[in-house]
Amino acid sequence: MSSNYFSESSSSNINDSLMNSNPATPPEPSDTSALSERYQDYFIASAQRKNQSRYDHYPLSKSALPESLKQFNVNSGNVSYRFYDMASSEDVREFDLSLVPQKNSLVSQPSSLSERVSVRHRKRICRRNDVSSISNSYAIPPSPKVEAPLTPISQRGSPFCSSSQTEPLSLTSIAEKYQSLPENVQAYTFFQMLRSCERRSMRPLMNKCELLLKKDLLAHLPNFIVRKILGYLDFPSFLTVALVHKKWRDIISSFTWYWRLQFENSGFSVDLQDWNYAYPLKPPPPFLHNNHVADEYFYDIFKRHYLKKQRWISPAIPPSHLSFPVHDSDRMVTFLRIHKDKIVISSESGSIQIHSAITGALEARLEGHKDGVWAVQIHGNTLVSGSLDKTIRVWNIKTGECTHIFRGHTSTIRCLEILSPKRVFRDGRIVIEPSRPYIVSGSRDHTLRVWKFPEENDPRYLPSESTSIEQWEKNPYYVHTLMGHTESVRCISGYGDILVSGSYDYSIRVWRISTGDCLCHLRGHTLRVYSVLYEPEKNLCISSSMDKTVKVWDLRTRACLHTLEGHSLPVTLLNVVQDKLISGSADSTIRIWDLSSGTQQMVMYANGGYIRTLQGDEHKIVSSNDGSLKLWDIKTGKLLKYLLTDVSGIWQVHYDENRCVAAVQRDNQAYLEVFNFFGRDSKM
Questions:
Q1: Could you give the CA distance from residue 279 to residue 504 in angstroms, rounded to a whole number?
Q2: 33: left (phi over 0), alpha (psi -120 to 50) or beta
Q3: Which parts are the WD repeats (predicted)?
Q4: Cis link prior to 434 (omega < 30° from 0)?
Q5: Is the pLDDT of residue 84 over 80?
Q6: Same structural domain for residues 171 and 229?
């Protein structure tokens, strides 16, 4: 537009308005920047007008200028501005404004090159030195007296836009310049910006300011102090901390050690499933410990163990319950095991039944024994059974076929054990023992017999009943007979190449299976030995007896380390969990002992009837007595719940990670009661 856009009188009024404006913090009259600030008040107020009527009237005395724009230095008598509104490019309006400084307020030397300032809808401001000076043809009002000479305005101009730079100012550069201002100037600038904001936009801004005023407690602390603080949190609080702020979440995610700490504080121990999850291609060490697994895996490992515990101890929903009768309705169930998604049971009738753990349907019936089956072991797809008929039978679980029959014992086979090759320490190095799997059977004929475990592709061996004793020992799967006990062999337990046996002759013997050697003979009980356990890592043997005691033996020294007394009737059941020994007795009590010191930790009273079944793990114990099935907390000894109460008797109980199965008698009928703690019809 023409430079005569304003009349001479209007120019005079503008200069009067600039000289008489009253900003929030007026500068001293001698401050040369004051006049420049007043010029800017006018420029920006004019640029913000959004319609033609705003170009016709310029109430500069009422305008408010943001602090960030009050430092522009104007060194020419005429400045040209261009205003860009939200309109299209055709509607862009341009006007020229001549600002005449007072003689005593600005430098007396000739004016420099005129500067053009473009205001583009509050987005950016730039200054370009490409506009020629516009002649000063406007009236100049008289200037007031100034007592002292004023300091010339710097040629650098505004701190936000250098005269030597031609590129536009971005929001980022404005923010950087703002940060370089003194603290009090920053405060004043921010306050003035707030004053110019609409009320509706101030509310979210104030909420963000409130967040910025909050102090981060963790970001400024040393790492070891943060670890100490977070170590006191339980894991629900720990997870809540991660939701507070992204920085806190990053801190939480970096503290993988915390989940190991929670894992150990909860009394959990890594197992083979955990190892296979962390190192699927690496063989496990001989005996797994928590320190064998790296911290990075403990979040998922802890999650698995914790959820398993919660499902059993305090489930969100009750476990599903399946009850169905077994076919031998009038016979006692002598053995029960959960094998994958199957339930295997044997009975006094001599039959072995395989049921679906999901539906209860009978999937297979293994028949061949002529009398009751009292000992069963499962290894992979192979089942081995021992019977009152003095024989051992080997079965294919998938097909239900009997593939091998071993004869040789002259009395009831009371116990069985399958010893597979294990990684163990021998003379300071890791070895695998034995070289192949073995079957060991204990009998009332006072002997133990060792047999080769038939592999899947080995030839069948099904001798007739008329085969003589001499022919029995020509069995290609027969290895040798272990002799030494003088009474019935009641119980056996082994690991790797070592097996311990307990007998009614009051003694325990330790054998090396591959050679048949008796390594030691342990005496000390005064009545029949009823149960034995072999603890391979510590090389201990634990035995219980009809003499009401439990003994802990060191197999290295052959010495009795502890005699555990407290039960008032025969001790019939033993279970080792981590460093705890659990014993069950006919006196209706379950006792927990410290295996290292031999001290009694707690007693759980089952209230009537001897303890018939007992099984425990890192967080629970399941026991049966007096027609009831009970669930206990192993850490506190508290009775958590009754799983069953409406039965005449309970013969066998077994549980895995997800299910608990009990063989019971109700109204002279045998039933299987299946409790699914993982979820209805779940498969693992």
A1: 45
A2: alpha
A3: 366-405, 430-461, 482-521, 522-563, 564-603, 621-642
A4: yes
A5: no
A6: no
Domain count for the chain, please give it.
2
Q: Residue 575 pLDDT more than 90?
A: yes
> Is 132 part of a structural domain of the chain?
yes
* Beta pairing partners, 413: 443
Q: Look-up: residue for tokens 């003194």?
A: 182
Asked, for residue 634, whether it belongs to a domain, the answer is: no
Residue 256 lies in domain: 223-313
Place of tokens 């308005």: 17
Query: For the residues of 9-54, what is the DSSP string, one character each?
Result: HHHHHHHHHHHH---SSPPPTT-HHHHHHHHHHHHHHHHT--SHHH
Same domain, yes or no, for 131 and 59?
A: yes
The arrangement of strands across the sheet holding 600-605 comes to: 571-577, 580-585, 589-594, 600-605
Same domain for 24 and 164:
yes
Average the pLDDT over 635-644 and give the result. Answer: 94
Contact of 533 with 521, CB cutoff 8 Å: no
The answer on pLDDT for 582 being more than 60 is yes
Q: pLDDT confidence of 135, banded at 50, 70, 90? A: very low
Contact 137, 98 (CB under 8 A): yes
User: What is the pLDDT confidence band of residue 146, given thresholds at 50, 70 and 90?
Assistant: very low
pTM as predicted: 0.69
**pLDDT for residue 96:** 41
The pLDDT value recorded for residue 623 is 96
Q: What residue spans of 216-322 are helical by DSSP H?
A: 223-231, 235-241, 246-254, 257-265, 272-278, 298-313
Contact predicate 50/85, CB 8 Å: yes
Token pair in block for residue 442: 């204990």
Under DSSP, the state recorded for 655 is E
Task: Please give the mean pLDDT across all residues of the chain.
Answer: 80
**CB distance 616 to 570 below 8 Å:** no
pLDDT reading at 471 higher than 80: no
Token pair for 115: 């500067």
CA dihedral 639, 642, 647, 650 (to 10 degrees): -50
HSE-up (13 A, CA, CB side) for residue 405? 19
